[in-house]
Every structure is written in C-alpha cells, then in structure tokens.
Amino acid sequence: MEKPDLLDMLVVAPHPDDAELGMGGAIRKMLQLGWQVGILDLTDGEPTPHGSLEIRAAETEAATRILQVPWRENLGLRNRFLEPTLEARARLANVFRRVRPRWIFAPYWEDAHPDHVAATQMVEAARFWAKLSKSDLEGERYHPERIFYYYCVHLKHVAQPAFVLDISEQWSAKAESIAAYKSQFTTGREELVTSFHDRVRDEAAYWGKMIGTEYGEPFASREPIAVSDLTRLM
Question: Which domain covers residue 179, as residue numbers?
C-alpha cells in the first residue's frame, strides 16, 4: 500500500500486538470511514518464549495486512527496557512532527507492565515537545489535538472509559489480526488458546452490551470530550 504523508490518527503501541488487542476494531473502522490511520510500535517485542525477530516481524506484517493499515513503523527502542528518556521523547516527537496526527492513541496510563506505563509517559511528553519552537527537533513544530487511551492492560483493572466505540462490524477483522500473532497467543500453550480468544471476545461483547451493540472497545481520556450535537450520542 502507498503510505500517506500525513495521518489523522496515530496509534502508539509499546509492542507489536498491543494496538490490535487494544483497538484493532477502531483502527479498521476509522480506515473504513476514510481516515488516514497509522501504527507506531515502539519496540520489536522480543525476546518472548516462542517468538523471534523474524517471527514477530512476519506476524506484524500479517496483522497489518488484515487491518489494511497503510502506515506502520517501529521506533526501534528496546523491549523490557522501555523508559521515557529525553532521547526517546525526542525520537517520538520527531515522528509526531513528521506525520502530524490529529489524534494520538496511547496505552491506558495505569498498568502492571512497565513498558506500557513508560510508553504513555513518553507519548504525553513527546506531544508537548513536538510543539516547541527553538529546539533541536526535526521538522516544523506541531501539537496533536488529543490523546486518547486504549485498554490493553496487564493489571486486574475495571475500566471506567470516557466512551465506548461500536466495533460490531469490525470485530472479525480485529479477531483475525490478533490471531496473526501465533507465537504470542498460540505456540506452546495450545490448551489456553480457546480460552484466551474467548476472553478477548467476551470483553468486546461486554462493552458492546454497555452501549447496546454486539461488540465495543472502551477508551479513556484525561481531558473533557466536547460534543456539538447531542443527536450524535447513541
């Protein structure tokens, strides 16, 4: 696919598969609505028990193709050692300036996984840095409008989202994109495969029930969300 120069929406993921698990349905839906959507993986996700650099790259390519995402890059930071350092912040801010997304999506800010917490701290800091003048950053200054937060947590946490998106028509694509990561969710623990995918489906069905649809995805926001027309609410 031809890569767009600018993005409407950029999903920042600590590892390959986090974007698909947290908001694969939203990614597919917004692409279908004509938005330019991209995914930036911060690390390659390795090492893992049954993965390798080659396996994860192939799985990521397959998942990207399933969701039909035209733009996906990897920032090349180190898995398990992700930290919101000044250097990492600058590298991420340079991406924001280059692709100039209107909205950024980051992992929910509370998590048991240190990489996820660090990723969100990095996103929030880089969003601020991207607008600075008189800096050593690349390109022209730019400030993304909003950060929203998707749920892909390792913490036993009951989400209290700001909104839930209907992904009923996109559920099958989301499920297929998650299944592409065989080394993470299938290999070596076949007895857990069905229960894992059932849990992911049940979570989506739960959020769908909350909004009166078949499937849904929850999102959080630190800032108030404005609406101009109450008739747009479901």
Answer: 9-232
